[in-house]
């Protein structure tokens, strides 16, 4: 029966008995296939190597090399490709049939030949062979795609690292643990200094995995670093990040995140947690505090509804803050129990060396579930004494030749503006138009921040920094600040800036800041005394500027910076 | 994991019930549950009583439902969540977006 749908195969027949071989070849040919012939096992292997037939019919008993050995060698040559071997045998004993299969035979055909059975077997074998070929093809295709994917991830990660490395994760007081491919798990860890030496830290977790998560991370990192470098506060950065993610992400994607502002200078930790597990604040002495999620994750709420309210804590040298991704508490053991916060807290309790905390947690996790996991993210930041200010993170594209050198401006920031707007980045940008001031951007920003927050908090809002004498008063101070700011209707802070060239080259900046408050006793403030929280601002301003003075009962400050002529 | 949905007799409420793990595997079924109904319900209720687990992609799906139901003006209620599921909703502060009803006295 000629069979048009069945493809013609090339079939090797090996049999030392020529009559049998010719008979079989006839049957196979009549079924529409090409026939190759061999008189013994060795010849069969040779023909196979040369002609690569798709199916082999092997007599078991042959001189020179028997069918079993030939089958072994043919299978070895064929490798992954399936070349079905059907043993031709008059052997009836079960043991011999087992040997056929062990040698790599796929089926056997008993003599005398029945052409219907043979035809059916060839068809069945061809089906299996094609299945195997398809599997191999798909395997190779998958391997190629996987290779592409890995390569794309490698490139994407390299690009992302360029963005992420503009940060300060390598700072001495930061310890962190993150899988190298955390980005593709949706985990994101960023840290950057602001011009005043505060440190912004973000640990984020995008919904989903792989490319979508990585794609969202990129603009988020850009906003984070850009705004930190320009001196925006954490609240402003948060609002911007949220708006950006809301705009670009699909509805079902969002980013859980904890953001921190660590201010060594003000000894303050500000926290915003939206959808992340509790963070932990461990004071050097005293009770561990939880930093729980108080907000919806980033990228869900529209701008007006988004709440960027920060919680403020005292953060003195030696205090530590610890953040982690949900991988830690969500680790499940074989019984589907979760690691949970209880076990985590117990690790904290038993931890003796803070530098070994991560290792302790990882050990506890691997003890708990019987194997380690490398996809958890953790970060720990220790409060340090204020150090030197970081170099400006801003990159200027102009040559500085067009520096404006003789001008003055005065701004008045009134009630509604004071409530919502932080004018400091804007003022700093303006001043950094002056090339001679760029080297001092950190000091400049710090002094501006101090002057402005003195004017706002002590002047306009009438807050007494003596309140910040202990941790509790501290929290009360910032709660009161928030409360009074929200209720603010009246009041103003005015900022005057004047740039003048000096006859001997270089120039001078004069900053005047005054407020509508009731004034304060500068001399008493500056002495500060035992009070660690109050009065530092004024000392700092004096240290960082060339000259600083207060008038009008502390309601008005005048601070000078100078710079030498630049070659 | 199984997702079933039922429109109330008067056609005003669509109740979607999740059984088992509520994660990405439920994505298509969950969407079908509210997209393939002829009625235009006024309110939605997601019954999480039989949900054993809920991950961040499930939170995303809830946001999709909320969007479908009118975004800011959506009336979506999450009901009967177990302690574990409730904890995940609480960490994400989803109570600010959805009405979350704790298991009743009979639960």
UniProtKB/TrEMBL annotation, chain A:
Domain Response regulatory: from-to ranges: 10-126
Keyword annotations of the record: Hydrolase, Phosphoprotein
UniProt protein name: Fused response regulator/phosphatase
Transmembrane segments: none
SMART domains, per database record: PP2C_SIG, REC
Keyword Mitochondrion assigned: no
Organism: Pseudomonas typographi
Sites of 4-aspartylphosphate modification: 59
Pfam families: HATPase_c_2, Response_reg, SpoIIE
Matching Gene3D superfamilies: 3.40.50.2300, Histidine kinase-like ATPase, C-terminal domain, PPM-type phosphatase domain
Keyword set includes Phosphoprotein: yes
SUPFAM superfamilies: ATPase domain of HSP90 chaperone/DNA topoisomerase II/histidine kinase, CheY-like, PP2C-like
Automatic annotation (TrEMBL), chain B:
STAS domain ranges (all copies): 3-107
Top-level taxon in the UniProt lineage: Bacteria
SUPFAM superfamilies: SpoIIaa-like
Xref: Pfam families: STAS
Alphabetical list of InterPro entries matching this protein: STAS_dom (IPR002645), STAS_dom_sf (IPR036513)
Database matches in PROSITE patterns: STAS
Protein name: STAS domain-containing protein
Organism: Pseudomonas typographi
Organism taxonomic ancestry: Bacteria, Pseudomonadati, Pseudomonadota, Gammaproteobacteria, Pseudomonadales
């Amino acid at each position: 029966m000629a069979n048009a749908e069945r493809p013609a195969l090339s079939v090797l027949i090996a049999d030392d008995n020529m009559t049998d071989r010719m008979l079989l070849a006839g049957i196979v040919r009549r079924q529409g296939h090409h026939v190759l012939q061999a008189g013994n096992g060795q010849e069969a292997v040779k023909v196979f190597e040369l002609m690569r037939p798709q199916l082999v019919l092997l007599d078991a008993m042959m001189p020179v090399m028997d069918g079993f050995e030939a089958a072994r060698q043919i299978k070895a040559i064929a490798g992954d490709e399936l070349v079905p071997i059907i043993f031709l045998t008059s052997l009836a004993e079960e043991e011999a049939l087992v040997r056929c299969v062990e040698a790599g035979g796929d089926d056997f055909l008993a003599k005398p030949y029945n052409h219907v059975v043979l035809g059916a077997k060839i068809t069945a074998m061809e089906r299996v062979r094609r299945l195997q070929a398809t599997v191999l093809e798909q395997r190779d295709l998958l391997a190629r795609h996987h290779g592409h994917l890995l390569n794309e991830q490698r490139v994407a990660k390299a690009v992302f690292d360029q963005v992420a490395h503009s940060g300060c994760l390598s700072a001495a007081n930061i310890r962190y643990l993150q899988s190298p491919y955390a980005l593709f798990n949706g985990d994101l860890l960023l840290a950057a200094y602001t011009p005043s030496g505060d440190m912004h830290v973000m640990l984020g977790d995008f919904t989903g995995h792989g490319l979508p998560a990585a794609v969202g991370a990129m603009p988020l990192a850009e906003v984070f670093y850009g705004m930190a470098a320009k001196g925006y506060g954490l609240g402003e950065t948060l609002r911007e990040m949220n708006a950006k993610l809301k705009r670009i992400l699909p509805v079902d994607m969002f980013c859980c995140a904890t953001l921190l502002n660590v201010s060594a200078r003000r000894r303050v930790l500000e926290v915003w947690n939206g959808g992340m597990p509790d963070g932990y604040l461990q004071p050097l002495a005293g009770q561990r505090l939880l930093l729980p999620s108080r907000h919806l994750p980033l990228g869900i709420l529209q701008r007006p509804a988004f709440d960027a309210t920060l919680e403020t804590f005292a953060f003195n040298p030696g205090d530590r803050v610890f953040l982690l991704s949900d991988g830690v508490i969500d680790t499940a053991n074989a019984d589907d129990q979760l690691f949970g916060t209880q076990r985590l807290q117990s690790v904290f309790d038993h931890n003796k060396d803070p530098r070994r905390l991560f290792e302790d947690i990882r050990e506890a996790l691997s003890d708990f579930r019987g194997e380690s996991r490398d996809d958890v993210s953790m970060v720990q930041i220790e409060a340090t004494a204020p150090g030197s200010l970081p170099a400006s993170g801003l990159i200027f594209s102009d040559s500085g030749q067009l520096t404006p050198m003789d001008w003055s401006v005065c701004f008045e920031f009134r009630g509604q503006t004071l409530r919502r707007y932080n004018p400091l980045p804007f003022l700093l940008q303006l001043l950094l138009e002056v090339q001679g001031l760029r080297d001092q951007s950190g000091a400049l920003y710090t002094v501006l921040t101090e002057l402005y927050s003195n004017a706002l908090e002590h002047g306009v809002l009438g807050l007494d920094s003596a309140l910040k004498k202990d941790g509790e008063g501290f929290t009360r101070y910032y709660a009161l600040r928030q409360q009074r700011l929200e209720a603010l209707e009246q009041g103003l802070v005015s900022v005057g800036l004047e740039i003048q060239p000096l006859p001997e080259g270089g120039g001078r900046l004069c900053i005047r800041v005054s407020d509508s408050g009731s004034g304060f006793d500068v001399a008493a403030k500056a002495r500060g005394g035992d009070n660690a929280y109050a009065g530092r601002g004024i000392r700092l301003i004096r240290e960082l500027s060339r000259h600083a003075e207060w008038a009008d009962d502390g309601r008005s400050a005048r601070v000078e910076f100078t710079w030498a002529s630049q070659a | 994991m199984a997702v079933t949905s039922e429109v109330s007799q008067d056609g005003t409420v669509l109740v979607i019930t999740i059984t088992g793990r509520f994660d990405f595997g439920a994505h298509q079924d969950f969407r079908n549950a509210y997209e393939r109904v002829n009625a235009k319900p006024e309110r939605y209720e997601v019954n999480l009583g039989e949900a054993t687990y809920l991950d961040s992609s499930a939170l995303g799906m809830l946001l999709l439902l909320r969007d479908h139901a009118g975004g800011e003006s959506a009336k979506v209620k999450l009901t009967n969540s177990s302690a574990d599921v409730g904890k995940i909703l609480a960490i994400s502060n989803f109570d600010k977006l959805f009405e979350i009803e704790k298991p009743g006295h009979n639960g």
